[in-house]
Amino acid sequence: MTDNAVRTGLTTDKTADTQYPIEEVLQHRWSPLAFSDQPVEPEKLSSVLEAARWAASSFNEQPWSFIVATKDHKAEFDRLLGCLAEGNQEWAKTAPVLMLSVAKLHFERNGVENRHAFHDVGAAAANLAIQATALGLVIHQMAGFDVAKARETYNIPDGYEPVAAIALGYLGDPHTLSDKLQQRALAPRTRKPLHDFVFSGQWNQSFLVKAD
Asked: Is the C-alpha dihedral spanning 157, 162, 165, 169 positive or negative?
């Protein structure tokens, strides 16, 4: 930890300070802003996508697609980067891999609207994130991108909806970021306590686990 980080209360240690024990790989998953320019090995990229492939989904419809662009194909990388919000382009341009997740909005089995599609795409992305963490990689998922531009850029058809952008790579030095981004990158991680969102009996009535 740098002296400046100590003075400001910021930290480079992003291990989750959990209320109850969880798996170590989950503790170490976080969303950095600083990426190394080290390329992601093709076999590791394939592994994180394979993890996404095996996520659970309603009726096993697997309503996810991923558009992938890597820096070794600069034109393709720049196309996807150009879909991101300007504030995200500032840091995501350093990541060696960018992705866009897309949801299929209707069941293939009967054409009915799949109201769980975004949930299932999120489950696939969570698998991807955990596999990436296990392989020593980091990812940052983004809501900040131009949906209409992404749809036009990639000819995404009706019945499909872009969900999130993803930066993937190896962790970089947060001190290479602008001062504003450093504040975000080095700030301590926080989460709501369980009693704020786990209910029982009725809405907003906290579910309390009682030890024997």
From this structure: negative
For tokens 């209707």, what's the residue? 106
Q: Rounded to two decimals, what is the model's pTM? A: 0.90
What are the two backbone dihedrals, phi and then psi, of residue 192, each rounded to the nearest 5 degrees? -65, 145
C-alpha span between 11 and 166 (Å, rounded): 24
**The domain over range 3-196 is classified in CATH as 3.40.109.10:** yes
Task: Note whether 100 and 66 are within 8 A (CB).
Answer: yes
Domain ranges of the chain: 3-196
Task: Supply 209's token pair.
Answer: 């686990």
Distances from the Cα of 108 to the Cα of 60, 66, 111, 112, 123, angstroms: 10, 18, 6, 8, 19
- Rounded average pLDDT over 134-147: 98
CA geometry: angle at 99 spanning 93 and 105, to 5°? 145
CA separation (Å) from 151 to 79, 107, 110, 111, 142? 12, 20, 25, 21, 16
Q: In this predicted model, what pLDDT tens digit does every residue of 197-207 receive, in sequence order?
A: 999 999 999 99
